[in-house]
Amino acid sequence: MAWHSPDGWLTQGLAPHVSTITITFIITLALPIFVHWYLYRSRAATVTPKFLVLGPSGAGKTALITTLERGAPTATHTSLTPLTIAAPLPATHTPSSARYRSTNDAALRLVPILFTDTPGHGKLRHLALGLITPAPPTPPPTGLIFVVDAAALSSEADNAGLRDAAEYLHDVLLALQRAYERAKSSVAREIPLVVVAGKLDLFTALPAGVVRSLLEAEIGRVRETKARGIVGVGKGGDGLGGEEVVEEGALGGRAEGKFEFGVMEEWGIKVSVVGGNVRGEGPGVTGLWDWVAGQI
Amino acid sequence: MLDSFEVLTTSGVVLWSRTYVPVGASAINALIQDIFIEERGTVGDAARPTYKRDGYTLKWRTAKDLGLIFVAVYQSLLSISWIDKLLDNVRALFTELYRDQLKVPRTTRVECPFDPYFDRQIKELEQEANNATTRSFTDSSAAEITPPGSEANELSAEEHPAVSGLRKAAKKPMYQDSTSTDVTPIATPDASRPNSPAHLLKAKAGPGGRVSRRSRKAAAVVTSSPAAASSGDESSANRRAAPKGGKKKMRKWDAEGLADEDDGVNLDYSAPAAEGERPVESLEGVDQGSWGTRTATGEFTLKDIGDEMDAILQSANAKDAKAADGSSGLVGSSLGAIGGLFRNVVGGKKLTREDLNKSLKGMEEHLLKKNVAREAAVRLCDSVEQDLIGMKTGSFTSVEATIRGAMERALRQILTPTSPLDLLREIQAVQGKRPYVISIVGVNGVGKSTNLSKICYFLLQNKYRVLIAAGDTFRSGAVEQLRVHTRNLRELTARQNAGEVDLYERGYGKDAATIARDAVTYAAQQGFDVVLIDTAGRRHNDQRLMSSLEKFAKMAQPDKILMVGEALVGSDAVQQARNFDAAFGAGRRLDGFIVSKCDTVGDMVGTLVSMVHATGIPVLFLGTGQHYSDLRTLRVESVVELLMRT
Ligand SMILES: Nc1nc2c(ncn2[C@@H]2O[C@H](COP(=O)(O)OP(=O)(O)OP(=O)(O)O)[C@@H](O)[C@H]2O)c(=O)[nH]1
Ligand SMILES: [Mg+2]
To answer: Where would I find the SRP54-type proteins GTP-binding domain in this sequence (chain B) (predicted)?
Structure first.
């Protein structure tokens, strides 16, 4: 039946039939509801957003979260235990999921956000790594904040601070990559990570861009020696005997060549770098809040 | 004099501090890292630990259940006799005063106007030290005039700013002081607390508060002393008696009025506070009020804090004594036992030494079965006990499970190196400039040469040029053994197109240290990347042979000294590790362990723990078999899992 015959569907569709009118009416009413539902779905679904703060010892993690909580840092010492604080998103920032809401919308105000500070000492890093991929009932963190001391990284050969930071970041990224690979079958979740180049108020601090490229280069080197190094003892079995060594993929899939944070997107890890400081003159923590607002 | 005093949380936030002379954060950071993380370097007995660093002496106390650390820093040149007392007292005061605030989750904010208490403590302790003769008199008299619970009760509601609506009151530090301290001496603070919000609500509703406050305040100036001293036994009895709504109301008005009145003279606060009590219970107060010192308002404040402090300290002491006393009566104990059993299943049980002891014994046995040396097992269990005493078990966790968890954490912490060694990176860093020197030491027959060849094989795989130095000039056959290894390795590498290996030998009987030094020089000339020095095996209790190691370390200047130990060795591991660690003279220690023959012990891998525990030096490699490729790095999770497996 041609579309132009009196019984064709198009003709019918434009004719003043009761059914046509009803259907049109329903669609007209339902469409905005669907649009609204689509836009705010993510907002409704979120539980309290939770961010994990990681980084080498002395990078300024504890100082950072106390700043997020109260607006000014406290005196701090080396941490022994993780610490969770709740800080509301400052009024100057809007969560990305609520970007279409009116600024007067009551639902916008006071989104509490949880930040979990972790100890950065070498012997205590397992606490943090355990929190990245918690046991099932606990949801994994919304995002990770990796703090480095921008004044302690320098491009000099064999800089201990840079090496330590890169090794830690390598381990964190690798843990995320593994978790993503394991979860692939069901629901692999994307996870954002921000590298905070902290202590920018200090004279010797490197800008965020430089921190990024230094870390990338160093992670490349870590990845390479890890791949060439001696493998760890096997898991399971009756003892530490030889056999069950599992070959695991290197960070970013291959061990050689240049490493860039960009490649991690393949494993759902979006890495960004922002600068910040909690003392003295500098950009402060606005950059970090911007990033946080973008994730919730 | 004291340089600095800090109260910090285990999560690293400084809650309160007093600095007389800036010390810098590094001293306390070092304390935390060495004592709490690496668990070494303590001087003094367990009850009064001391740590010295950079000319400073640090003493500390912890409050486990609240996660607090109290640290006093002073110059090592001075010896201050009352530091331990100060720490104990501050711990008792601080935990009592701010306990509820400290328990609020998800915040680091704690309003702690602790200054007056601290000043007062310092003053008292200094005085005490200064005139030891008069001390006893003032001390005891102070204690006598303040029976625990004096004028405390009423204001219990004010103590905790955490209770909504009280923030305002909390802003006025002096005021808060008085109230919070007032409250604590009560013998059963826990019981009194849940009531407080209710009182608060009632109080808010009360009309006419302000007027009455003023009038009372006026009165207070005149008659403050008797009221203030109205005290103790009878008032606490009073508050236990149920009907006290009216009293509470008046109280609350005081609180509000004062909190609003910013310009109010600080020292005044105690007067109206005390005054509120007067109508209800003044009689006894009058005769106690004849203390002359208490009439002057200034004195008053100080006394007040002193009183409450004493009361808190007394009750803390009493609690300690009671805890030490143990069981109380037949009924009490059996009920307690049933409750304990129940709690053991459900969780939320507060762990005492007795609870732990039984299960810890089992844990110790378990560790011994895993071939952990007794000394290490005992110390591990002690540290777990220290960690857990006073903690509450989690919900639905038994004591055993809690201990298991804590032990797992302790093991993991011990075995994880502070900074992991990346051998290849280190070699790369010096490559082309000089050879990287590794020497291997250990007792006889543990597999030094075998493990040396394994490391050599690994380096060859990474295309390095390696020189093996035959430093065992003692045992016949040692050089030949290395020659065989070198030949094998050369064949393997030729096939695999890997690195290059050579042997540096000077026969038997020569001085090993000289050979080692010559080998390094030779390697530098020939452009080798790495020198591996084998040494003669020696008993760790053989003085003569052990002492030659010092010279060896001086002459060969190895980048890394690795000790090989057998996984089978058992309890001797501790002494072996210690003696070798100490053998290289001041300023030079072992850099790591290689534990050989791990494939032969199954899950009895306790030797690893013993060696690391004795020295704090990490295990770098594990030998797991007969082949050149049977060298592994330590994977902490695997080892902990094997150790905890039953
Ligand atoms: N100048 C400057 N100093 C900072 C800044 N952030 C932190 N610090 C200092 O860096 C030191 C270490 O900070 P922490 O926050 O304790 O370090 P952390 O990362 O928590 O360290 P761990 O707990 O050991 O993992 C403190 O003395 C801080 O005062 C900053 O932005 N600028
Ligand atoms: Mg910290």
So the answer is: 618-631
In this complex, do B425 and A221 lie within 8 Å of one another by their Cβ atoms?
Answer: yes
Q: Give the model's pLDDT for residue B346.
A: 58
Clarify whether residues B464 and B600 are in a common domain.
yes
**In chain B, which residues have their Cβ closer than 8 Å to the Cβ of A81?**
10-11, 67
Is B305 a member of any domain? no
B543 shares its domain with B464: yes
pTM over 0.90: no
- Cα(A119)–Cα(B590) distance, integer angstroms: 27
Q: Give the C-alpha separation, B528 to B525, whole Å.
A: 8
Our answer on whether the CB atom of A223 is closer than 6 Å to any ligand 1 atom is: no
Is B513 in the same domain as B393?
no
What average pLDDT does the structure give for chain A?
Answer: 83
Encode pLDDT of B429-476 as tens digits: 888 889 999 999 998 888 888 999 999 999 998 889 999 998 888 888
In CATH, A48-230+241-295 is 3.40.50.1860: no
Say yes or no to pLDDT of B237 above 50: no
pLDDT digits (tens, 9 = 90+) for B55-64: 899 999 988 8
Q: Read off the pLDDT of residues B151-195 as tens digits, 9 standing for 90 and up.
A: 333 333 344 433 343 344 434 444 333 333 333 333 444 444 444
Write b or e for each residue in B482-501: b if 16 or more Cβ atoms lie within 10 A of its Cβ, otherwise e. beebbeebeebbeeeebbbb
Residues of chain A found within 8 Å of residue B106, distances taken between Cβ atoms: 84-86, 114
Per-residue pLDDT tens over the stretch B281-324:
444 443 443 343 444 444 444 456 667 777 778 777 777 666 55
Specify if B364 maps to a domain. Answer: yes
Cross-chain residue pair B642–A232, CB shorter than 8 Å: no
Between CA B389 and CA B36 the distance in angstroms is 16
Establish if B295 belongs to a structural domain. Answer: no
- Flag whether B468 is in a domain: yes
Nearest alpha carbon, ligand 1 atom 27: A76
Among the atoms of ligand 1, which is closest to the Cα of residue A56?
A: 25
Of A42, A119, A51, whose CA–CA distance to A86 is shortest? Answer: A51
Question: From the list A123, A163, A242, which residue is nearest B413 (CB)?
Answer: A123
CA dihedral of B608, B614, B615, B618, whole degrees rounded to 10 = 20
- For A170, the 3-state DSSP assignment is helix
User: With contacts defined as CB-CB under 8 Å, which chain A residues touch B634?
Assistant: 232-233
* pLDDT of the residue at B343: 57
Domain of B375, in residue numbers: 330-415
Residue B524 has, within 13 A of its CA and on its CB side, a CA count of 11
Q: Is the CB of A275 under 6 A from ligand 1?
A: no
Among B280, B216, B215, B272, which residue's Cα sits nearest to residue B245? B280
CB contact under 8 A, A234 and B8: no
Report the atom number in ligand 1 closest to the C-alpha of A59.
19
The Cα–Cα gap between B272 and B217 comes to 5
Which residue among A78, A122, A245 places its CB closest to the CB of B417? A122
Residue-wise pLDDT tens digits, A14-43: 778 888 889 999 999 999 998 888 776 655
Q: Do A119 and B424 touch (CB under 8 A)?
A: no
Is the domain of B182 the same as that of B68? no
CB B152 within 8 A of CB B183: yes
The Cα of A233 is separated from the nearest Cα of chain B by a number of Å equal to 5
* Per-chain mean pLDDT for chain B: 73
Per-residue pLDDT band at B646 (split at 50, 70, 90):
confident
Ligand 1: does its nearest atom lie under 6 Å from the Cβ of A141?
Answer: no
Identify the closest residue of chain A to B17 by CA–CA distance: A75
**What residue in A sits closest to B601 (Cα-Cα)?**
A239
Distance A78 CA to ligand 2 centre (A): 5
> Would you say the CB of residue A59 lies under 6 angstroms from ligand 1?
yes
- Better-predicted residue by pLDDT, A110 or B299: A110
Does B333 score more than 70 pLDDT?
A: no
What gap in Å lies between CA A165 and CA B136, rounded to an integer? 57
Q: Which atom in ligand 1 lies closest to the alpha carbon of residue A282?
A: 31
